[in-house]
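Notes from hallway chat w/ T.B., transcribed later so I don't forget. T.B. wanted the structure written out for a chain they're using in a teaching module, and asked if we could keep both sequence and structure tokens in one place. Agreed to drop them here.
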Amino acid sequence: FTAMNEPQCFYNESIAFFYNRSGKYLATEWNTVSKLVMGLGITVCIFIMLANLLVMVAIYVNRRFHFPIYYLMANLAAADFFAGLAYFYLMFNTGPNTRRLTVSTWLLRQGLIDTSLTASVANLLAIAIERHITVFRMQLHTRMSNRRVVVVIVVIWTMA
């Protein structure tokens, strides 16, 4: 609030402005530990993306995996691939690079992470519920239709 009790907007400020006002430490230059963490983080992100891409391709190519549970697993792999992508983006916008972020890019960074992790957890929940129902009814495969799985997947991504 200003002196006249009018709300003030800080959307034109960089994230460094907000860090300085909150008293949090914001690195000004790269140190050895930060470089090591970034290098390891990028390596892990690439591995996560490649592994989940392989899962999605395997489910798409192999006709034995064309069942609703595997569609949910492919969607989990897609959410985890998206998480790897979000963290890859985070790796390049962390440390001293955080100073240059605008409010919009900081919100994008946080939104990507929140969306991917929410979708991943929601997929795990959907798979657990589907497996519980299938085991509880003593079936080998679920009675869930492909249409219902598509609806579940759309709901998961809409909620995320």
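Follow-up for T.B.: DSSP finds five helices and no strands in the chain. Might be a good example for the class.
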